[in-house]
Write a structure and sequence with these properties.
It contains nine helices and seven strands, in the order H-E-H-H-H-E-H-H-E-H-E-E-E-E-H-H. The protein has 252 residues and is an alpha+beta fold.
Length: 252
């Protein structure tokens, strides 16, 4: 924890004032939505353990390396009482439409999320500044910021914080932003009350990322036979492209 405090709740302002301050700071820092959740993820932990037992993580051995710390934030960072989850959209407003780029023989098509600066640095900086803003109002408190940098069930935490729901493709979906966003977290020892605030007016309905969707997702989804709990990571497109090239498939 950063700057741990023995009694983090002693100097807390009113819940309304703290929620308003967090929402205001998040908006000023370029975050599109934030929410707060508790740390209990019992059902998600059971899904994760079954998924690992079946070997569906393939060669992603790091998925099993940390035991239950992935599903128990208060064990990963002792003292954690709440998790602030944040959403930052990655579809740039000025980006050309996908079909326009694909139809231009002189242009290369680059994944939307890779068009900007390294999101790890951008989102991490915003979350650290958000935690500092909270400390200015509530007093010093213990916190840790994560952006793809620790074993965290970020989609489950974001869902519990009200940022969206987990769809059949196993990604988080937001009604106002599809799946075109990054997620980051602040683990804190402040006993924050419920907070959800959508801070952006962007509308990208139906924009769903399929980066780790099983290759058979679409056909099974159309027939209603797809079970999200049975989505093997080793069958995902990103896994097959980046982790394990199938036999007989050339890098050319």
């Amino acid at each position: 924890m950063h700057q741990p405090s023995a009694a983090a709740s002693a100097a807390l302002p009113t819940a309304h004032a703290l929620r308003a301050a967090i929402a205001h700071s998040a908006q000023q820092l370029g975050l599109d939505a934030i929410g707060v959740s508790e740390v209990t993820l019992s059902e998600d932990e059971r899904h994760l353990e079954r998924w690992l037992e079946r070997g569906w993580h393939g060669e992603m051995h790091y998925m099993a390396r940390h035991g239950r710390k992935r599903s128990r934030p208060d064990e990963l960072v002792p003292g954690t009482l709440r998790v602030i989850s944040a959403r930052m959209n990655y579809r740039a407003r000025e980006a050309r439409a996908a079909d326009a780029v694909l139809g231009d023989s002189a242009s290369a098509y680059i994944s939307r999320y890779a068009l900007g600066r390294d999101y790890h640095k951008v989102l991490r900086r915003s979350l650290r500044q958000l935690a500092a803003a909270v400390a200015a109002l509530a007093g010093p408190h213990g916190y840790r910021v994560f952006v793809d940098s620790a074993p965290v069930l970020e989609k489950a935490l974001a869902r519990n914080a009200g940022l969206g729901w987990i769809g059949k493709h196993t990604n988080l979906i937001a009604r106002d932003a599809g799946s075109w966003f990054f997620l980051g977290e602040v683990f804190t020892d402040l006993p924050l009350l419920g907070l959800y605030s959508r801070l952006s007016d962007r509308r990208d309905r139906g924009a769903v990322s399929a980066g780790c969707t099983p290759l058979h997702f679409l056909s099974h989804h159309r027939t209603g036979r797809f079970d999200p709990a049975a989505a093997a990571g080793r069958h995902g497109q990103s896994y097959l492209r980046l982790r394990r090239l199938p036999a007989g498939v050339s890098v050319e």
